[in-house]
Amino acid sequence: MRIGITYNLSTEVATAEGIPSDRADEFDSLETVRNIEKGIIAAGHEPVRLGFGLDAIARLKRQPVDLVFNIAEGLYGRARESQMPAILDMMGIPYTFSDTLALSLALDKTMTKQVLMQHGINTPAFWSVDNPVQVETIIQSGTLKYPLFVKPSCEGSSMGINDNSRVACDDELRNQVGELLAAYPGSSILIEEFLPGREVTVGVIGNREPEVLGVMSFKLLNGTEKDFFYTPEIKHHWEKYIVPECPADLTADEYQKVRNLAVGVFKALHCRDCARIDMRFDANGEPSFMEINPLAGLAKGKSDIPVMAELMGLSYEDLIGRIIQAAVERIDAERPETTMVTEAQRATV
Ligand SMILES: Nc1ncnc2c1ncn2[C@@H]1O[C@H](COP(=O)(O)OP(=O)(O)OP(=O)(O)O)[C@@H](O)[C@H]1O
Ligand SMILES: [Mg+2]
After folding, report:
1. Is CATH 1.10.630.10 correct for 2-97?
2. Considering only CA atoms, which of 115, 46, 36 is closest in space to residue 72?
3. Contacts 24+ apart (CB under 8 A), 300-307
4. Any idea which ligand is nearest the CA of 108?
5. N or C, which end of the chain is more exposed by having fewer CB within 10 Å?
6. Distance 87 CA to ligand 1 centre (A)
7. Mean pLDDT of the chain
8. Which segments constitute the ATP-grasp domain (predicted)?
9. What is the pLDDT of residues 242-267, one digit of tens each?
């Protein structure tokens, strides 16, 4: 198959107007695109670089592809991750990972929690605000128990998270919300109860009956896990702070609950092919949902999914092959009359 790759490079952020500079962390490097190309070749296919937006459309018109490996984060708005998938849907071209609805929803942490609560998924009590007056309403309501955690509702890569994100009193809450509203104008801010237990991230791969790729946690190199949380500094230089551990050191019961939560979230949001679910244990020792990344980072040796795969004995190339295989099986199941690959090709993915 000819497999196109759609992506946004971190270097684009500098030239695109009105995008917070720390969003560059969300975008990809040329090295990641090259590594995905190697994975596509190793799986027996031909990679085609498409880039993003109008350029990608022009290239797709010149050079049709059978499938798109989509890692484009998109440029503007709350539904930005759906921009490339929406174009591909319009052009009738199949692509890897989740569809427009799941990608848009997952980018809004507050709305995702609302949907998941309908499915009985455990997640911290929360409020979302977009102005300081609403903070006073929350304080007066007394419905959230300190300590709380304050983060932008529609960003990733720990954007807007710093040493003051865990707040222990009304004044700290007012200050932190004020800072985020100033730093990310027009955004909504999620205030939720702080999860004091261990942090775990789970890779899920597949479709109807998805499999767990890995359940990853970490050991801290310094300090105790109590009150630890990821800031951008720790995400960037994690080797200085943590040692990833996959499979995580959990009891069989904890592992089962973590697995059920991750797969439950993946299915409830109708995710496709692969996604990463972040959770922590709550004060009752139950895993509790923080957020899902249906377009999880694929930087080799850096992002959680490739690191997790490596620790589980799956090479980067094989990981890309598994994602392509999941997409191909899904698309074949949706359109049985026009299977995408021959049996010989299938043997190579
Ligand atoms: N309710 C919470 N209680 C404790 N820590 C939290 C809570 N919410 C977020 N955190 C900490 O902040 C980090 C970033 O939060 P979260 O995963 O929700 O956002 P993100 O920036 O989108 O993450 P990613 O980089 O995975 O896309 C978490 O990994 C965790 O360490
Ligand atoms: Mg996260």
Report:
1. no
2. 36
3. 300/31, 300/32, 300/35, 304/201, 304/203, 304/216, 304/244, 304/276, 305/203, 305/213, 305/274, 305/276, 307/216, 307/244, 307/246
4. 1
5. N
6. 30
7. 92
8. 113-325
9. 999 999 999 999 999 999 999 999 99
- Residue nearest atom 11 in ligand 1 by C-alpha distance: 229
Residues of the chain with CATH 3.40.50.20: 2-97
Residue extent(s) of CATH 3.30.1490.20 domains in the chain = 125-193
Nearest CA owner, ligand 1 atom 24 = 157
Q: What CATH fold (topology level) applies to the domain 125-193?
A: Dna Ligase; domain 1 (3.30.1490)
Distance 33 CA to ligand 1 centre (A): 26
Conformation bin of residue 317: beta by default, left when phi > 0, alpha when psi is -120 to 50? alpha
CA 284 to ligand 2 centroid distance, Å: 21
Q: Of 158, 189, 202, which is best to mutate to test ligand 1, by the most ligand atoms within 8 angstroms of its C-beta?
A: 158
Residue 254: per-residue pLDDT: 98
Looking up tokens 């990310």 gives 184
How are beta strands 148-152 and 189-193 bridged, if at all? Answer: antiparallel
For atom 10 of ligand 1, which residue has the closest CA? 229
pLDDT per position as a tens digit, 211-244 = 999 999 999 998 766 689 999 888 888 889 999 9
pLDDT confidence tier of residue 169, bands split at 50, 70 and 90: very high
Going from the Cα of 317 to the center of ligand 2, the distance in angstroms, rounded, reads 24
Quote the tokens at residue 255. Answer: 């592992």
